[in-house]
Amino acid sequence: MFSIPIGWSLIAAGLVSGTLLGLRFHDEKFLGGYASWPRRLLRLGHVACVALGMANLLLAATVPAAPFAATLCLALGGVAMPLACLVVAFLPRWRPLFAAPVALLLVAVFEVLVAVAAVRPGVTS
């Protein structure tokens, strides 16, 4: 369905954002220093893009008839997590925002586990 274009788009966004962050990796003062809150959250966001992009591709490859809820929640969570990282990097008081993408991703995983458990090897319909 849309897991493949979302997956590749997230991977591309992660690579581009990682490249932009990497252009200043040598600057100890960039975004407040290596261990600063903004820099850590932006790194987390770029890694989340790549990892959740791969998760979308894995879903498409391993569960071709995945439930719509799983596909939708994984796609939305994949977009929402890096956005939450970006927002919280500069507005730390918005940290509870992370509950939304985490909830979406947990629903996706639960739906996939239920779908996979429902398929019994060797049993034909």
Keywords:
4 helices; mainly alpha; 125 residues
Summarize the structure in words.
The protein has one domain (3-118). The chain is built from four helices and no strands. It has helices at residues 3-22, 37-62, 68-90, 99-118. The two termini are 24 Å apart.
Write the topology of this structure.
Blueprint: H1 3-22, H2 37-62, H3 68-90, H4 99-118
Helix pairs in contact: 1-2, 1-3, 2-3, 3-4
The rounded distance between the terminal residues' Cα atoms is 24 Å
| Beta-strand fraction estimate | under 5%
Largest sheet: none
Dominant shape: elongated
- Low-confidence segments, given as residue ranges, are none
Order of helices and strands: HHHH
Please give the domain count: 1
Instruction: Calculate Rg over CA atoms.
Output: 17 Å
Number of helices: 4
Number of separate strands: 0
- Percent in helix: over 70%
Q: Residue-averaged pLDDT, rounded?
A: 93
